[in-house]
Amino acid sequence: TEDERSNLICWLEFKLHPGLAIGPMKIELLARNPDILQIYEFLGDKETRKLALSSSQFKAATQNAAAIRRIKDFFGVKISSKVTTEALHVQSYPFGNHFLPGKDLMQPILAETAQELPLATLIIHLNDNGEDSGGVTAFPYSGTTARLVKGSAVLWFNRLSDGSSDTNAVHGVCPIKFGNKLVAKLFVPFDKRLISGKCSLKQTERFQLPANNMYFQKPELPPLVVPKRQKPPIQGFMKKFSKYSYASPNGLTELVQLEWKFYPEIKRLFQRHLKKTKNTRLEKSNEDILACLEDFEQSTKKIVENLMELPLNDLQAVKKVALNPLAIYKVIGRFRNYYLRWTIGIPEPGNRLKIKLQSILDKMYIVSGGPVRDDLEKAMLVIANIQFIYDLEVKDVAAGLIDGIDARVTLNAKDCYLIGQQAILKERFTTGIAWLEFALHLLVNTNDNSMAADDVYNELVAAEIQHDEEHPKNRIVDYNFFVKPLSQTPDHSQRITHRSLYDQELKKDWNIEKHYDNKLWQVCTGKIEQTPEVKSQLFCWYETEIHMTYKIGPIKAEIHSLSNMSAVIHYHDVLSARAVEEMKLFINDKPSRMIIDSGNYDPFSSPVLRKVDTAMVNNLSQVTLDLMSRITGYKKPPESRPMDGHYFAYGPGAARGRHWDIDYGPLTIFASFVFYLSNVEKGGETAFPRLRVKITPEKGSMLLWVNSYSDGKVDKWIEHASCPVVFGEKWIFAPDSVEGDQHQLRCHLKRRTPYEVVVNGKPIQSNLK
């Protein structure tokens, strides 16, 4: 803004601190809060050339004495001559590459310690591609960029004075449009201080750099408020997960088995206690045990008949609970509200029942394995998301009826209240208010006494006020709001949501170039399908020959779309049952939790379990790639340039928003392959909203589509997503095929012409426009 720019200056630096005189050196202040400095002519041509020669990624360059000495002289920091976390590293960003906004993390000195956020970061530019070459370092929260000027350095602090992270220091690198970008990075650990100066007592004070020993006057600027929904787009945020994480279908299965293991013990212990007390009035301190047992029995008895002989080793029976969104929510709720408290709490003196109960749980339940609070929140949001995306009535979901399937579990008023409360916290107002209203209905009009009606009413009023305060005026995304402020529509029957308006517009004209998320939801729910004209062009066949070299088959293949010449082909029974199970075991070896998010707003954002097979080292991955090449005729990556294969496991509610599979760093993904490693009881389809088609996962099958036309342009019609898993689990393996490897394919002279679809060696043509 103009106010922020008025506080920016440049100067010639002669002295940095009392014991050191340097300069003159030109320095420019790019931003305040935090201070971001660009130092010109920091290194000469000789030093930058030496560093550029060591341009392999993250190569230590501490042997460049001139560069290290320059940094020591400028900052007055003692830097070790050994390769440590303070080492200067050289990075190369090739053409077309970029770096999504994030924070800098230092590699630890000891292998067993975690990465840490450095106090400050210094970037030295080692080359200059020109003003229009891209690749500038961008600070989205400060609204500024640092230009690529050879020999210049950019400096900023990553931490506040109290050691906490400065969220405004998030930065990224814009795409390289020409040539490449070479930089050297120095991370200064938090146990070092750049300048000897006053240490602020304020908790969130920022470090400052002086100009010739004089500190700038702090600008009187309003605190930075990051606009909601404008956080830096994240494609995947990785973090460790607990053993019983909601992201892991196997973890949820083991969690149910654990509860089934100690439920009979708790039940017998409780019954013996009642017998000893001759069924007199239960002590108030033990009423929670009765509440837990009743909750377990009410949510499980319709799924499993004999509760005292639970089939622990029957995985099919266990998964009926573990992969049921309502049932697993109840399970996680009991662990968080009862078992965890009983295990780590201190029983009241003399309460022998709780002491014995704690002894049972100590032997079976390791609290560090979870589930954690985030898992319970995810379980509630999954129910809210399924209800919203599949456009279901809250009363039906609470009664256990989800899109025509009986979950055999019901929700009481307190459950509905908690789900609504969680939705409101995520600003999903239409969903949250619907759940709160139904919770109030249950308390007022039924025998439900799970909580006080006044608490629900107060929460509902607060949610409506918050909705009106946040009501979209110029918001791009407004699916979660009503059209008018609720204060203007006291009659509930007159309240209209933006989503319902958009659905009506699509009903009139599906080809309208907007409301793409609504299109996806309608495809997932089956409300929109391909036209009869399109369906008449589709067919299936037995593939016996791909080209002259290979003869295979017969393999059953099915064309799901030829609309706009964008072919989606489903090959059935490609992998054997044994190969599928072995590949599923591979993902459980040190997997990671990934929050999949496509863009600034993604209603499908959800935790997914992922395992990356780096360079396809797994033998099964290579066998699968060979099979892929043999069936389709597309060539797999050469051994000299290996690609990664991605294994994904989707649990209940997990999904992925609209996206294209296009870039793999500087490479372009030519075609996408999805190997389905499981069937899904309900949901989990791969949807192509622009093509109005969804494909149901089938264990052992392979789905293929081409991402670009023969001229290299992206095929927008092939935009796809994963519908939420409603019941069951979805496992896939997704290798990529790079465009540069497919030299055997024919390029058309006409622009935006797709590659030909080949059936038994002969191309087919579609007459559709």
TrEMBL record:
GO function term, MF aspect, one: procollagen-proline 4-dioxygenase activity
Keyword Cytoplasm: no
Domain Prolyl 4-hydroxylase alpha subunit: 18-189, 566-738
UniProt entry keywords in alphabetical sequence: Dioxygenase, Iron, Metal-binding, Oxidoreductase, Vitamin C
Cofactor: L-ascorbate
Pfam families in UniProt: 2OG-FeII_Oxy_3, P4Ha_N
CC annotations in GO: endoplasmic reticulum
UniProt-listed SMART domains: P4Hc (SM00702)
Membrane-crossing residue ranges in chain numbering: none
Protein name: Prolyl 4-hydroxylase alpha subunit domain-containing protein
